[in-house]
Amino acid sequence: MGPFSGSCSHTWKHWAFFPLLLTTCAGSLMAEDSRVLGGEPCAPHSQPWQAGLFQGVRLLCGAVLVAPQWVLTAAHCQKPKYTVHLGEQSLRNHEGTEQEFKVARSIPHPCHNDSSGNRHDLMLLRLQRPANVNSQVKPIGLPSHCPQPAQKCMVSGWGTTTSPRENFPDTLQCAELSIWSQDLCEQAYPDKISDGMVCAGDSSGVDTCQGDSGGPLVCEGVLQGITSWGADPCGRPDKPGVYTSVCRYTEWIKKIINAN
Prior knowledge:
mainly beta, six-stranded antiparallel β-barrel, 15 strands, globular
């Protein structure tokens, strides 16, 4: 059993953190959450599990297809209403591969709440109908074990490519990061890291940034992380991005999907 499959009996310290979602402010896009800095455009449809959460035409967060009718994202991305887009590469150009869905149900992890800060930061969304699975849209596998320090992984998203000044790309961006040991992660963010988090970074400052929240950290073809939070500004080599460690929640994810 995973460590977060049962009750939420822990008392967590509350702290300020930098989430990575997008909100609207005075008619313009303002980033509150994560991002891909120092990346480059993904090869077209090389991340067929990548999803986007939208309010109208505005991108709110990233997400990941984990079953034909389910996407996984960050709990702090929760809003009263949004749509899920799959099969997107360019947000401006219609490519004929896009699929759009209304959300039937949002299920944040039961231990994530205002007092838990950024712990247990994941949420399942049940789509109103299953996705049409093809080469451009297909679920990613869940992990059977946790990632290892120094393991190479891929992040992707439409988050800002510059920080602190924000510049949101049209094309899905990809970047390679390395998993940090839990000890180094805790040294970078004293008293802020739990067993349900994993850090990944790059010595040159490649990072996720505002707009990438909820998107995938993929290691050896399986989903090992959900983009959650990080330093402000993004892209500091000594401050890695922090991801919800999916391997710690696999049992909860499967339980919810099978029960609904």
